[in-house]
């Protein structure tokens, strides 16, 4: 299957009503202008064709924040879990991974400070003992820290509870 392509096509050509799409854009503008949200970015597609993306407002609530852009990267956190878990389950199906494999068997640097017993299953079920985000997460994001910095901070974290004994 070919990747979706941004087209300069009318919404109607892919079965989307232009007046309804404009109402959606107006609602997003209204949400930004009323202060309900600082900003939003949206891209709509159908049948492998995507319309031109749109951005509204700012990236953060403060007025000095950069304007939202159509290529702004968002913190998505656990909403990615269904995709990640599906990929992990494919690896399990292929015999390349087990749910009860210790994470440190895959990433040796991870195996310290109480994380030696954390398994793939613990990560997928929020029972690893790790916090839902790094304590310095916002500061690192403001600094535009590279991914490797986040990974190093995860390696240095201590678990907040024994793996498998609670849900975070």
Element order: H for helix, E for strand: EHEEEEHHHHH
Number of helices: 6
Helix content: 25-40%
Low-confidence stretches: none
The fraction of residues in strands falls at 5-15%
Rg of Cα set: 21 Å
Strand order of the largest sheet: 1-4-3
Can you describe this structure in just a few lines?
The chain is an alpha+beta fold and about 170 residues long.
Task: Give structural notes.
The protein folds into two domains: 5-57, no CATH class; 77-156, no CATH class. It has a three-stranded mixed sheet with strand order 1-4-3, with no helix packed on it. It has helices spanning 18-33, 81-93, 103-106, 120-124, 137-142, 147-156; strands at residues 5-6, 39-42, 45-46, 49-50, 54-57. The radius of gyration is 21 Å and the shape is extended. The two termini are 38 Å apart. By secondary structure, the protein is an alpha+beta fold. Helix content is 32%, strand content 8%.
Supply the key terms.
single chain, 168 residues, alpha+beta, 2 domains, 3-stranded mixed sheet, two-stranded antiparallel sheet
Helices and strands, with pairings:
Elements: E1 5-6, H1 18-33, E2 39-42, E3 45-46, E4 49-50, E5 54-57, H2 81-93, H3 103-106, H4 120-124, H5 137-142, H6 147-156
Parallel strand pairs: 1-4
Antiparallel strand pairs: 2-5, 3-4
């Amino acid at each position: 299957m070919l990747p979706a392509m941004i087209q300069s096509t009318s919404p109607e050509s892919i079965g989307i009503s232009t007046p309804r799409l404009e109402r959606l854009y107006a609602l997003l503008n209204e949400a930004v202008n009323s202060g309900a949200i600082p900003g939003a970015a949206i891209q709509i597609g159908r049948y492998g064709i995507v319309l031109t993306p749109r951005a509204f407002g700012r990236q953060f609530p403060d007025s000095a924040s950069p304007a939202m852009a159509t290529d702004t990267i968002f913190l998505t956190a656990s909403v990615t879990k269904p995709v990640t878990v599906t990929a992990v389950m494919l690896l399990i199906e292929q015999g390349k991974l087990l749910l009860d494999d210790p994470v440190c068997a895959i990433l040796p640097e991870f195996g310290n400070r109480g994380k030696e017993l954390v398994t793939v299953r613990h990560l997928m079920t929020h029972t690893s003992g790790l916090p839902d985000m790094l304590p310095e997460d916002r500061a690192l994001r403001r600094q535009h820290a590279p991914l490797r910095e986040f990974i190093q901070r995860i390696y240095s974290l201590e678990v907040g509870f024994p793996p498998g004994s609670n849900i975070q």
